[in-house]
Structures are given as C-alpha cells and as structure tokens.
C-alpha cells in the first residue's frame, strides 16, 4: 500500500514537471529527427566537376550515368583540369571526373581506359563514401554500355555480393535506431538522478524517511516510474520509425523486454550519480561525464571495429553496445529471443550489478 502511494506520488510529480516532459519528448522525437537528417552518412548531390577531353558518345554516356545518380551534382568546367583543381582546393567542389581523350576508342577496341578521379580526402569518412558511389557508377556503366569490357572482367573471379537487411545501404535506419537507443540511455540516467537530487535540494527526502516506509520502498518509488516512462516512450519512438520508413521486422513486445532489461543499467547509473551529487547541476554534469564514454564505446556514433584494440575491449563494458545490437537485430533483422539471448544475458548481468550497487548507495545516502 505504501509503495503504491509513493509510486502514485512520483507519477503525479513527474506529470507536473513540464520541463521533464518536454525533455523526454524532445529526446525521443525532435532530436531523433534532427540527427537522422543531419548525421546521415548517405551522399547526396556531392559537388562534382567534369572535364571531358574526349567529347564522344561514350564520355557523354558516362556523364549521364553519374548524372542519373542522386549522389552527384555535376558541374562542367570548360577551362580545363587546372581550373577544376583550383576549385577543388578552394572547397567549391569535392570531386573531379577527368575523362581522357581517346576514351571511346579504347573501349571500342576492348581495352581498359582509365578515367581520372580526383577526390578531396580532407574528410576521410565522406571521401570513403563517395569513392564507393564512384566505383558503383563506373561498374554499372561498364556492364550497361560496353559488354566487351564486362565480359573481359567476368573472365576473372569476382564476388557476387548481396546486401541483407538494408539493401539500399542507407544510413538512415541505423541513425534513427541509434538515436532512439541513446534517448533511452539518457532518460534512464537523468530522470532518476534528477528526481533524487531534487528531493535532497528541497530537504524533503528526510521528511519521507520519517514516514512508515522502508528504504527499499522509497528506492523503487524513485526508479520504477523511470522504467515505466522509458517503456512508454518506445511507442513514441515508433512514430519516428514509421516516419523514416525503418522496417520493423521483429516483435515490438520483445523490444519492450529488451528495453526494460537495458533500463536496469541506465537507472542504476542514474541513482549512483544522485548518491554523490548535492545539487542538480552536479548531477547533470556527472551524468554527462559518464554518458559520453558509454555512448562513444557503444558503436552508436562510430563503428566498434574502427576503434583501437584497447577501446574495442573497453566497449564490452558498455551496456549500450548490447542494447544497440539488439535494437538493430529486432528492427532490421527480425531477430528474437533465440538469436539475442546472449545480449539479453549480458545486459541483465550489467543491470543486476548496477541496480544492486545503486540500491546500496541509496541506503548509505539515507543513513
């Protein structure tokens, strides 16, 4: 009965706090939308300069192949290669496509003709993505317009590649799901930390302790609402998933279970932050001090495989990494308990350890 009354009190207090409501709605909606659009790794209308020395049917066909791709914004440079290089140095363009004289003649004779591609590599991530698009357009041109060359290449061993789960190779599904996972982490950490520290600042936590309730009941009253809010926010995030046409191949209800297990870890971190903080400002600073390493090591912002070996090993200590993998598995691969039970088990271990540690810290706080 006492626990139910405390839970009701916490929920009423939460819905009376417009700032916290706005923060949670922002994290699960507007921030996800902004990041999905702004942090997309897909290349669109990349400024490309054309230098066509051949001016033949073949060179025009190659230019058309690039023009038909949404990845490139083609601009002709009538003054030649040197003028194009100057624009590349000034940052007005990122790619130069230089078609040599005799391009069509070499292709008609079954020879391999080299097309020069000058790419601005100052941004390594963008350059790598653009290089992939260039290779794809050149391969498609080869297959479509010049079967002789295509047959020549096919005489050598080559891989037949199929892209599973994301055949369009769009970064949008990954970005949307990673931002949703990050929102769950931030809400799970910040909300319980703010709720407990607010009681400390207002000196009302002592008043609660003179009431006939136990430390455990007060602890669960401060943490269970965060669990409920985190689970309800999943349904808000599904609206964003629908907006960006991210496939939902797995069970939403199983994703709720995965989220609940993960939130044990996030809530545990939030309570531990609250136990060592005296003010809300301190709690927020400490929360972000712990959030950033967890986020950077989770694979949500940078691939774990691209990290140094030491950081890859440290990433195994980030519960967010396992939650991110499970989220991608449920939504994009249709994975279920049979495939994701190792992730669930690891998250459960992290959750139990952190939740128990936070309960012990909460008990020390109220002594």
Distance between the termini: 24 Å
Rg to the nearest angstrom?
A: 27 Å
Quantity of strands, as a count: 4
Strand order of the largest sheet: 2-1-3-4
Helix content: 55-70%
Our estimate of the beta-strand percent is 5-15%
Number of helices: 15
Largest sheet: 4 strands, mixed
User: Whole-number average pLDDT?
Assistant: 81
Number of domains: 2
Shape: elongated
What is the N-to-C succession of helices and strands? HHEHEHEHEHHHHHHHHHH
Weakly predicted, low-confidence segments: 153-159
Describe this structure in words.
The chain is mostly helical and 367 residues long. The protein folds into two domains: 2-39 and 170-365, no CATH class; 46-154, abc type-2 transporter like fold, CATH 3.40.1710. The chain is built from 15 helices and four strands. Strands 2-1-3-4 form a four-stranded mixed beta sheet, with helices on both faces. Mean pLDDT is 81; it is low at 153-159.
Task: Summarize, please.
The protein is mainly alpha-helical and about 375 residues long.
Element layout with pairings:
Elements: H1 2-15, H2 18-38, E1 46-52, H3 57-67, E2 72-76, H4 81-89, E3 95-99, H5 103-108, E4 116-119, H6 124-145, H7 147-154, H8 172-201, H9 205-209, H10 215-243, H11 252-275, H12 280-296, H13 309-314, H14 319-333, H15 337-365
Parallel strand pairs: 1-2, 1-3
Antiparallel strand pairs: 3-4
């Amino acid at each position: 009965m006492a626990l139910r009354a405390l839970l009701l009190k916490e929920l009423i207090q939460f819905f009376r706090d417009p700032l916290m409501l706005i923060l949670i709605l922002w994290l699960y909606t507007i921030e996800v939308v902004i990041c999905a659009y702004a942090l997309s790794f897909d290349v669109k209308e990349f400024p490309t300069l054309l230098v066509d020395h051949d001016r033949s049917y073949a060179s025009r066909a190659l230019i058309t192949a690039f023009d038909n791709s949404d990845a490139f914004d083609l601009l002709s440079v009538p003054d030649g290669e040197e003028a194009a290089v100057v624009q590349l140095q000034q940052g007005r363009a990122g790619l130069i496509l230089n078609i040599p004289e005799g391009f069509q003649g070499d292709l008609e004779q079954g020879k391999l003709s080299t097309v020069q591609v000058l790419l601005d590599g100052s941004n390594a991530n963008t350059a790598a993505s653009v290089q992939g698009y260039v290779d794809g357009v050149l391969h498609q041109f080869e297959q479509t317009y010049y079967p002789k060359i295509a047959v020549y290449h096919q005489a050598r061993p080559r891989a037949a590649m199929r892209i599973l789960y994301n055949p369009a190779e769009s970064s949008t599904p990954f970005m949307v799901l990673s931002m949703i996972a990050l929102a769950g982490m931030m809400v799970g950490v910040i909300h319980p930390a703010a709720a407990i520290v607010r009681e400390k600042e207002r000196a009302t936590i002592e008043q609660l302790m003179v009431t006939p309730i136990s430390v455990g009941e007060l602890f669960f009253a401060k943490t269970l609402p965060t669990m409920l809010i985190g689970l309800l926010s999943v349904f808000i995030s599904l609206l964003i998933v629908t907006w960006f046409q991210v496939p939902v191949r797995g069970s939403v209800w199983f994703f709720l279970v995965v989220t609940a297990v993960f939130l044990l870890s996030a809530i545990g971190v939030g309570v531990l932050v609250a136990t060592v903080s005296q003010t809300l400002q301190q709690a927020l600073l400490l929360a972000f001090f712990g959030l950033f390493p967890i986020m950077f090591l989770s694979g949500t912002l940078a691939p774990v495989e691209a990290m140094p070996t030491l950081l890859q090993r440290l990433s195994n200590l980030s519960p967010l990494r396992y939650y991110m993998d499970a989220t991608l598995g449920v939504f994009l691969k249709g994975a279920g308990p049979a495939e994701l039970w190792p992730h669930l088990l690891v998250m459960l271990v992290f959750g139990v350890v952190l939740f128990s540690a936070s309960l012990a810290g909460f008990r020390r706080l109220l002594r």
